[in-house]
Design a protein that fits this description.
Length: 424
Amino acid sequence: MNTIAIIGAQWGDEGKGKITDLLGQHADYVIRFQGGNNAGHTIIVKDKKIVLHQIPSGILHDNCTSIIAHGVVFEPEAFWHEVESIKDHITVTPERLKISLNATVITRYHKLLDAIREGNGKRKIGTTGKGIGPAYEDKIGRRAIKIKDLFDKELLIQKLQIALEEKAYLFEHFYKTDFPSIEEEAERLYQYGQKLFAFVEDTFSLIDKATQEGKKMLFEGAQGVLLDIDYGSYPYVTSSSTGAAGIYTGAGVTNGVVTEKLGIVKAYTTRVGEGPMPTEISEEIGHMIQTIGNEFGATTGRKRRCGWLDLPSLKYSIKASSITSIALTKLDVLSGLDELKICYAYEIDGKEYDCAYPGLDLAKAKPKYKSLPPFKDDFSKDNQYATELNEYIELIEQTLNIPVGIIAFGPERDQIHLRKKYFH
Ligand code: GDP
Ligand code: IMO
Ligand code: MG
């Protein structure tokens, strides 16, 4: 087992950063393949809290090279803020981090468009406001600025002219707002390009070589399958392929290479932003989970909506990403609650569904719950849990038909039990 994909199996924030950091200590490469600085991946080491947005969560390990592959949308200014924010813990050097010359650049026009669309309230998605959707629109529309374009100012101006043609009209006549001039944006991006030059590489060939050499690779997904542009609760999704399929296009490896797809699952459900969430709890217990779990977005600080574990959605994520095992996180948050429920099916228009699928109208889903005995466990003994906690884990394994390979019971690096070996 030399390649492992870390895939969020819910609506993001499942604890991918923590698990990537854990397995990253054995990896040669940790690779981000999609998304951008909409991600917020938290790693806690002793009393240090590190939140990574664009930089892969392998960066804390000396042995490991981090790669931002071509499927990522990259924001140069935010990148340097991030480097600055972690400088007391780690120095980000071109030896430790490689950025694809083909990654798509997020410009100020993208952030402005994102902000205007969200702000006018007509079709609010509840985005992170980082310009992610508009940047991917330009990529698919074949007018994006790529990292390699940042090094030639004349070329950059030409490309920005193409990219801005329609947007300028929208800003002036439709949204009636000011926007940065092309010269100003070109100069800004060019200067960032100069600072980035040493980090930039053909990461496709780097990953290809690593594959040929049998190196240990960890593909770090951002967001989660239920936010995937194709598989998620559209239109309340992000604009990239967040599942395992994103690895093939976003990092340039094909199916057979990634043998283990580790789905990261929070022991309950959270969601930030708009969109349906069948198991959301509006009563006090939801508030308790939010408070005990400290459920605030790592990127925007917004409160995360909380609910019970949603097995129909998980069954679907597992199919959609061919997930082979699970890391179940934040069990400590449920430990000690007086009530424990799990959603095993939805009822929609009088019909029962035990597995979601694309196009199922989750806004109409009435969750069917099974009540379970609550558990109390201090997680001090490896793989020996309270009977009730075992019941919870076994129910998840049986329903989803895959093993829970890791359980996590606290935010710190070592608050974890391995029930299965990863990276032999
Ligand atoms: P990611 O986006 O999937 O990397 O997850 P986030 O970092 O956005 O959110 C997960 C939050 O839960 C972070 O604050 C983590 O420090 C924290 N966390 C991760 N695993 C556990 C756990 O097992 N228990 C508790 N209490 N917190 C955890
Ligand atoms: P990590 O990697 C949770 C959500 C936003 C919004 C939708 C679209 O930390 O798990 P976008 O800015 O991407 O256009 O927003 O997706 N979202 C996330 N929710 N975790 C994330 O990342 C997210 N990244 C985006 O809240 O609902
Ligand atoms: Mg997060």
